[in-house]
Amino acid sequence: MVNSDSSPPPLLVATGLCKSFGGIKAVQDAEIQVTCGSITGLIGPNGAGKTTLFNLLSNFIRPDKGRVIFDGKPIQHLPPHQIAREGLVRTFQVARALSRLSVLDNMLLAAQKQTGEKFWQVQFQPLVIAKEEKQHRERAMAILESVGLASKATDYAGSLSGGQRKLLEIGRALMANPKLILLDEPAAGVNPRLIDEICDRIVSWNKAGMTFLIIEHNMDVIMSLCNRVWVMAEGKNLADGTPEEIQCHPKVLEAYLGK
Amino acid sequence: MVQYLVFLALSTSIFALFSLGLNLQWGFTGLINFGHVAFMTLGAYTTVLLSLKGVPLLLAALIGAILAALLGLVIGFVTLRLREDYLAIVTIGVGELIRLIVNNQDLPVGNTWISGAFGIQSYPIPLANLQPNLLLKLVMIGLLTLLAVITFYWLWRWIRSKGTSKLVDSPKQVRKKPDFILRLLGGGLLGLLAAAIYISGIIALYDYEPKAGLMLLSLLVLAFVFWRLEVLVRSPWGRVLKAIREDEEVPKALGKNVFWYKLQSFMLGGAIAGIAGALFAWQLSAIYPDNFQPQLTFDAWTMVILGGSGNNVGTILGAVIYFAYDTLTREFLPRIFTNLSSDQLGAFRIMVIGLILMVLMIWRPQGILGKKEELTLGK
Question: Is the Cβ pair A96, B252 closer than 8 Å?
């Protein structure tokens, strides 16, 4: 089927991704598509290979086989940092705050194309760098404000709670100004009130034009956020469709509940 | 006394420089380097051998630093992609390797080849044959005064500074007062030491002694390197290094070329150690492979840990304390333990350093200037 005029073009298309660890086939011939401007969900029972698929998409783990096309360009051969520069930024299942850096520094790290990250520019362009830092700092504070961490900006990131680290990590991904953010279980280990807050934020950023691909076990989150859901089980694609279709898909129910 | 203080300032500044290189690699980037002396050896031998061939001294030292950086590139290129313990192992090996090469190979000393085991003597040393007129003496004294003024200003600011760190509001407000008294005592002692060195420096520069010129040179180099390092670690460049130290997957996921930054840090730290090596060779005025024992690497580690790793001021402070300890025990231990031989005393002094480090690790594991909060933070 060719895209109809109304549906936007896919931002990310992965096909035929395979990865084995020794004899274990963690991901087998998996595919996924993320349309531009959508919130796409990726669900599946534990051990289904969801996080491995994220690692393959961002090339933190090299796929054995398969193609990943992002924004019209093949990216599966690029090293992880270049994929991030192309605009595909991932977060981690266990939030990784840089403990001994301040919350603000955690955010500033994510800014792209900083002049001050080049050794020689630090020597010769102090004024340009100071100006850039000021702009980045303003933007970082605005994002911290929106995730409710502005008052913690000068604290060490290591002093944040688990839920706050999740928020910091999402904020940090936004700071990188990507085209697509891969969120790995943003609601895991977060208290219900904070989950609602995180969901609200994701919706409002999505309205502002950000595309998300989300792994999540919390079905309420998936059902309320996603336009389209992909289901994996035992390393393979099981189904995909709208949240409503997935909810009553017989194969999905079987994978989750058994026969 | 004057000569001794000049010697002390010279040694301290050279090893502070050497340790600053290690602090960049370990304290800021988290790279474990157990063969730091390799860079120093390479820097020292390159400088000395090139200057014997007639290359101008400063150019020779610069080439030494560049070669040390290239050594860092080679070591880093093969190990930095692997887990961090591989770097630790390879650096131990390279440290010994370089020393064994200069020990066993014939080296091109001037126009002849001489076995490295005989060492290298009578090479040119900067400012050694200088006969300064009054103006030049005054300029040199002026430079020394400038350094002294900066040092005193910082000491004063540090003594008066608020004890609590800005980053975390510490609940221990009560402990402020003893902290202030401790700082006053420590700062006062350091101030006295600095003043003694400053006065000796003026005397030695006025009745010009070559060692005093070399001391001024290495203090200036140290000040310059310290200044540039402070600028670097506070820049976005330094932020990436610190991020790598904390968790290298994060900067990778945010588009930073982690491998390349580790290489840069490793090379720059190596180049700094290379310059320290050139100064060390000039101080010794004759170098032998035995001057570059692995012990030096661990002295640098002691200095970095003592002052608080990831803190350039702390590293310099660590070097000052190390040499102050060295001097004091050399002077007073023989008087206290009159029945011990000099060999026993030497071993005893090293044992006490170990003991101090252990006590420090229990009582203040973050080092003297390190921040306690940084240690207790979970990953």
Answer: no
**Residue A7 confidence (pLDDT):** 63
Of the given ranges (A26-40, A99-113, B325-339), which has the lowest mean pLDDT? Answer: B325-339
B142 and B127 within one domain: no
Please answer whether residues B270 and B94 qualify as being in contact, where contact means their C-beta atoms are separated by less than 8 angstroms. Answer: no
Give how far A131 is from chain B: nearest CA, Å: 12
CA within 13 Å, CB half, B287: 30
| Beta strands B120-121 and B286-287, pairing class | antiparallel
- β-sheet bridge partners, residue A156: A102
Å from A97 to nearest chain B CA? 7
Phi, psi at residue B131, to the nearest 5°?
-120, 85
Dist. CA A101–CA B371, nearest whole Å: 12
Of how many residues is chain B composed?
379
Cβ-Cβ contacts under 8 Å, A87 against chain B: none
Detail the DSSP E strand segments found in A91-235. 180-184, 211-215, 228-233
What order of strands is seen across the sheet that includes strand A65-70?
Answer: A24-35, A10-21, A65-70, A73-74
Domain-terminating residue out of B187, B207, B227: B207
- Looking at residue A20, its amino acid is S
Please tell me the predicted confidence (pLDDT) of residue A251.
84
Distance CA A95, CA A110 (A): 15
B236 and B178 housed in the same domain: no
Question: Whole-prediction pTM value?
Answer: 0.89
Residues in chain A, total = 259
Q: In 10 A of CB B288, how many CB atoms?
A: 15
Question: Do the chains contact at B255 and A119, CB–CB below 8 Å?
Answer: no
**A92, A98, A129: residue with CB nearest B246:** A98
Decide yes or no: CATH 3.40.50.300 for domain A10-97+176-257.
yes
Domain count, chain B: 2
Q: How far apart are CA B214 and CA B129, in angstroms?
A: 11
Q: Which of B207, B240, B266 is the last residue of a domain?
A: B207
* Minimal Cβ distance to A117: which of B240, B246, B377: B240
How many angstroms separate the CA atoms of A112 and B144, rounded?
43
For A55, name the nearest residue in chain B, comparing CA atoms only.
B253
Q: Which residues 6+ apart lie within 8 Å of A128 measured at CB?
A: A115, A121
- The CA distances from residue A227 to A35, A218, B123, B195, B224, in Å, are 10, 16, 76, 72, 58
Read out DSSP for B70-111?
HHHHHHHHHHTTS-HHHHHHHHHHHHHHHHHHHHHSEEEETT
Q: B114 by DSSP, 3-state: which?
A: strand
Supply the DSSP symbol for B1. Answer: -
CB B345, CB B334: distance < 8 Å: yes
Q: Which residue on chain B is closest to A82 by alpha carbon?
A: B255
Helix (H) or strand (E) holding B286: strand B286-287
Render pLDDT for A67-77 as a digit per residue (tens, 0 to 9).
999 998 999 88
